[in-house]
Give the backbone structure.
Amino acid sequence: MKEKMEIKDLISVGIFGAIYLAIFMISITVVGMVPKIYFFAGAVSSLFLGTIYMLFVSRTGKKYSILMMGVLIVTIMGLMMGGLWTVFVFGYGVVIIAEIIASIGNYKSFKLNTLSYMVFALFPFGVYSAFWVMKDQMLEMSKPYGDIYVTTLEKLINPTTLIYAIIATLICAMIGSLIGKKILKKHFEKAGIA
Amino acid sequence: MIEFNDVSFSYNKNEKCVKNINLQIKSGEFILLSGKSGCGKSTLLNIISGIIPKHIKGELLGKVTIDEKDISKMTIQDISRSVGSVFQNPKSQFFHLNTSDEVLFSASNKGLEKEELSKRFSNIVKLFSLEKLIDRNIFDLSGGEKQKIACASTCAGYPKILVFDEPSSNLDHETINEYSDILRELKRQGYTIIIAEHRLYYLMDICDKVIYMENGEIKKKYKKDEFVLITDDDRKKLGLRAVKTVEIDRKISDINSFDNQLYNNISDDEKTDIHLKNINQNSKNKCNNRVEIKDLKYNYAKKEILDIKYMNMLSGESIAIIGRNGTGKSTFAKCLCGLKKSNGIYINGKKCKEKERNKKFNLVMQDVNHQLFTETVLDEMLLDFNKKEKNSKEYAEEILSELDLLDFKDRHPLALSGGQKQRLIVGTTIIAERNICILDEPTSGLDYEHMEKVSELINKLKSKGIIVIIISHDYEFINMCCDRVIKFMK
Amino acid sequence: MEKVKLKLDPKTKILMCILVNIPAYGIANKNFLLPFIFIALGMLFYNKLYRQIMNYLIIYSFLNIIKLLTPILPTVLVHMFGTLIISFEMFLPFIAYGMVLIKTSSINEVAISLDNINAPNFIIIPLLVLFRFFPTIREEKNAISESMKLRGVNFGFKNFIIHPYRTMEFMYVPMLFVLVKTGEELTVASLTRGLGGEEKRTYIKDVKFKFIDVLAISLFILLIWICFKMKGM
C-alpha cells in the first residue's frame, strides 16, 4: 500500500525543490552564456542534479512526491523564464510521466527511478520548444536587423539541434543518476539520511 | 496536569530510551530536567509534545495524560494546542522569512480571528520586548534574537504548557539573563514549564523542582531548596554543570588595550617555563612558534569591525576569547584563518598571507557538519592538501588512537556523534601540523563529562605545540583549560 | 482620513506577468508593448520603487543601444549574442511585471492569497519552504566553501574543470546532510506549532481579491485585445 504525503514530506519537497532549482539556475546561467551550447545547458545541469533527485526519491518516495516537486520547480522556473505557455504544458507533462514511471517500481527500483529522472530532466525543453513555436515570429522580428540575425537564428532553431540536445540530455541524466547512486551509497546511506 | 504512568519508549525492540517513568507535574509548576547527555531528557519532552511516537516512530508503553486526557489518542497538532515546544537550534525553527509572520505562526495555525491575532501580537511583542525585532528578515538576526522569536512564536499560541529543550545552548551571557527574565514572567503568568538543560545556574531561582535522570530512568526528584544546596563534588559526580553563576577566575585582557603584551613584559626564561609546562617535547609538531598580530584592521559595509593593535601568541598556550555576540569574535577567527582578507599576521616574524594561513591555521566551526567531506574517518585524516607521505597512514592511526577514534576509522564521518566529529577535526589539525587551532563554541550543549573531555582535547593540542584559541561563553570550561582570557568589546 | 493604498492581490500580479507574454511574443512590432511597460513602471512608481525603475530603464537602453550598433559590430559577436538580444526584447515586458511582483509582494502574501482560494497544503507549504530555504542554502554554501578552503580544496572554477566530480562531491555531501537535518528539525518545530492541523489558517494581513483586481485584469485583457486589433489594421 502506498503511503500518503505528510507535512514532513511537503517540507522535504520544498527543500529539495529549493536546492534543485538553485543549482539548475546557476548551471543554466553559466552554460547559457555561450549561446551556441544554450540548448545543451539542461544536459550539463542534469549531470549534477541527478544526486539531488535520487536522494529525494530515496527519502520521500511516496505517491505524488515527484509530481509535487516537479510542478513546483517547473512553475517557478516557468515564471522566471518568461511565463510562456509551452514551458508549463511541456514541463507538467514531463513531470507527470516521470512520476508515473517511478511509481511503477514503488519508488524503489533503481532502473525505473533512473528512467524517471531521464524524463524529468527534459523539462527545460519547454523553454526551447518555445523558440520553435515562436520561430516565425522571431524571424520576422529579426529581419530589420540584417540577414545575419536571420541566418544565425535559422541555424540554431532547427530539428537537428533539438534532437541532439534531447539525446544529450537523456544520456547526461542517466550518467547523473548513476553518479547519484554512487554518492548515495558512498555517503548518505552510511550517514543515515538516505 | 501532566501525568506519566509507567511509561517507557524504545526505537527498536532492543534498548529502551526511557523506562519506568512515573511523574506528575502540577499546573503552574516549573520543572528542570537534568542529567547527562543521553539520559532521556529529550525523549521525555518529545513524549509530552506528541512527537514521540507520532513523528519519531517506536514503541511507547504506559499512559500519558494531559488534563486527564490520554494523549495517545491525539494528533501532534491537537496536543500543540496545550503544549508549546522550543528547541535548541535557533537556525532551524523558523518557517517564515519575516519575523512578524513567524511570531504569529502558532496562532495562525489555530485559525483565530483577526482581532485575536492582533491582540496576541501586541501582547507577545510586549512580553518579549520584540519592538526592535518585528517586521525584519529573520536571517539578519543574531542567534539570541532568533531564539527569542522562536520562543515568542510558540507562546503566541497561548499553550498552557511550555516545553524547552536546551534553549540556552547557543546564547551568550547577557541573552541568557534576558531569557531568564522571560521565563520568570511566563511562570508568573501561570504557564506550566518543563525545561531540559545542562546550564543550570540561570534557572536556580525560578524552578520549583529538579528531576535528575540517568539511563532513561528518573533517579531522583529534588525540591528546589534541596537541589541548590548540592555540593560541587556531588554535582560533578552526577555529571551536572555549575549550579551557581560562574565567573572567570583569571585576569581578563581587553583586545583593544596593550594588556595583551602580558607576554612581552615577561622575561624569556619565564616564557620558556610556561612553554615547557604545556608542551610535550616528544611531539612531532614544531613547538616553538610565535604568532603575532600587528595592526589588524577589518571593515565591512563601512563599519569598522576589527582594529587590533597588537597580539602575541606562543606555541602551546590556550587563549580564550569572550565577549558579547556581534563584537567581532567570529570575524577575528576568520581573518586569522585567511578566510577574510586582512593583513597584519606574522608567524615567527614573517608576514603570513591568506593562502598560507589557510594551511597553517584551522577553525573548528560551531556546526562541524560543514567540515567533513570524505567516506571514512581515516580518509578524512589523510585529506589535507593531498599529503601522501610514506607513513602518513600509520601516523594518522596513531593520532586517531590518541583521540579515541581508532575503532571508528572505517566509519563515515557524518555518522559519528557530535563530540567524535569535533575530535576528528582536531585530529586533522594535528596531522596537518598546523600552528593554530581555533574552536568556536566547542562546549555548547555539553554536559560536565563531555566538557571535561573537550578540556582534555585542548590539553592534547597544547602538548603538541599548537596554539589553541577558544571562542566561548562557557566560563566553567574556560576556567578549566585556558591560560589567558581576552575580551572583545564593541 | 487615512490615504487608501491601492494594493493588488498577488494573484493579479502573477496573472499580469503571464498575460503580458501574449502581446510580447505574439506581436512583432515592439512599439505595441510600450503601453504595457508604462503600466508596469507606473505601478513601480506608485509604490515608490524608483531604483527599480532606474534599473529597468538601464537594461532597456542597454539592449536598444546594442541593437542600434549591430551593423557596425563584428560578425562573431553578432552570431553569439544575436539570438540573446532578440529574445531579450520579447522578455522585457515580463521583466517589468516580474519586478512589480517581487518588490511589492512577499512570498507570505502570495501564500495567503493562494490560501484564500483554498489552494491545498501541498502547493502552499512546499512553496513557502522553498523560498525560506534559499538564504539558508547560500549561508551553508559559504560555510562549506570556507571549510574547503581550509582543507586545500578551493570551490572555484579551476577546480571544477580539473576535478568536477570531486569538487561537486565535497560541496554536496555536507550541504545535503545539513539541509536534511535542518529539514527534520524544522518539521518538528512546525508540527508542534500546529502546522497541518484541521483548522484553516488565518492571517493578520489583509490580502484579498477585491474589485480593483477584477478591474485591473479586465482592463489588461482589453488592452491586449486592442493591441491585436490594431496590429491587424
Remarks:
- Residues 118-202 of chain C form one domain.
- Chain C touches chain B through 49 residues (CB under 8 Å).
- The two ends of chain C are 48 Å apart (CA to CA).
- Chain C is about 75% helix and 0% strand.
